[in-house]
Specification:
Layout (H helix, E strand, L loop, with lengths): L5 H19 L3 H21 L3 H26 L12 H24 L17 H11 L1 H25 L1
Helix pairs in contact: 1-2, 2-3, 3-6
């Protein structure tokens, strides 16, 4: 088995750590900032996988549009600290963390035991990660899921606006 690329390992660690902070943070603004770090870590991973177009689109779409949309809805809701709810006791949070680690272990164990070698990067199909292949996959192969996700995002925005209007 080959050695692990240090840039990939650092980007993966930043992505996982930021993803944990998204869930752990009590303040939604801090969660959104952690999500920004997670998205940027994923973009670095895409770059290391030799998919620069996917990395650029990821930064533009997710970091530039989706995250801004999340921040807009968070600001629109204008939650006060007492509206964020009560935190679980430390024992309950520890139990939940232990259950999550156990579930992660069950998922990661088969992957860790897999001894197959990765194919060389030269075996990637021609045009992998290019504008043409991504566009074809997005608008031909996965057109329905793409449209369903856009509808889901619009419903989420309308829900946020309705929740904000009820407070006024």
């Amino acid at each position: 088995m080959g050695s692990i690329d240090p840039v990939f390992a650092l980007a993966a660690a930043v992505t996982v750590g930021a993803g944990l902070l998204v869930v752990i943070q009590r303040n939604p603004i801090y969660s959104a900032i952690s999500m920004l770090a997670c998205f940027l870590g994923l973009a670095v991973i895409y770059l290391r996988l030799e998919a620069p177009f996917l990395a650029a689109i990821h930064v533009l779409v997710y970091t530039g549009a989706i995250l801004v949309l999340f921040l807009f809805v968070i600001m629109l809701l204008n939650l006060k600290p007492e509206e964020l709810g009560v935190e679980y006791p430390l024992k309950v949070r520890g139990l939940i963390a232990a259950m999550c680690l156990g579930l992660f272990g069950l998922i990661a164990l088969p992957l860790w035991q897999d001894k197959r070698e990765l194919p060389p990067k030269s075996s990637l199909p021609a045009g992998f990660g290019s504008v043409e292949t991504v566009g074809h996959a997005l608008f031909v192969d996965y057109a329905l899921p793409f449209e369903l996700i856009s509808v889901l995002i619009m419903v989420a925005v309308f829900g946020g606006v309705l929740l904000a209007k009820k407070k006024l």
